[in-house]
Amino acid sequence: MENLFKVDSHIIDSRLTVGLIQKIGNICILTLDSNELYNGRNYGDVLFNIPEKFRPKFLTPVSVGIINSDSGGAAHLETNGNVIWRGARTSSALYINAAYLAN
Known about the structure:
The protein is mostly beta strands and 103 residues long. The protein has strands at residues 7-11, 18-24, 27-33, 46-49, 60-66, 73-77, 82-85, 94-101. The chain has a single domain, classed as Phage tail base-plate Siphoviridae RBP, head domain (Immunoglobulin-like).
C-alpha cells in the first residue's frame, strides 16, 4: 500500500499540448496530445522514447485517436521504451490515453 502513495511523473516533450507519464506503484498512465508535433510520421517510425523507470514490462499495443480523421491508428509501447507508430502517415494531432504495467 505504501508505494501507491508515491507518484512519479515524466514530461515527454514540452512542445506537446499534453505529454505526461505518471507512475503509481507498477502502473503507468500515459496521456498524450501531440499538437501536430508528429505530423509526417510513417508506419514504423519512433514517436518518442519512454525513460527506463517508466518503461512497460511487456510490449503494449495502444489505440491512438487522430483529430479530424475518419481513421484511427495504434502505437506499440516497446519494452526498450520506444513508442512506435502503427498507422498511416500522420497529418494531424494524435491522442493517446493508456495504462500499462511497468518494470
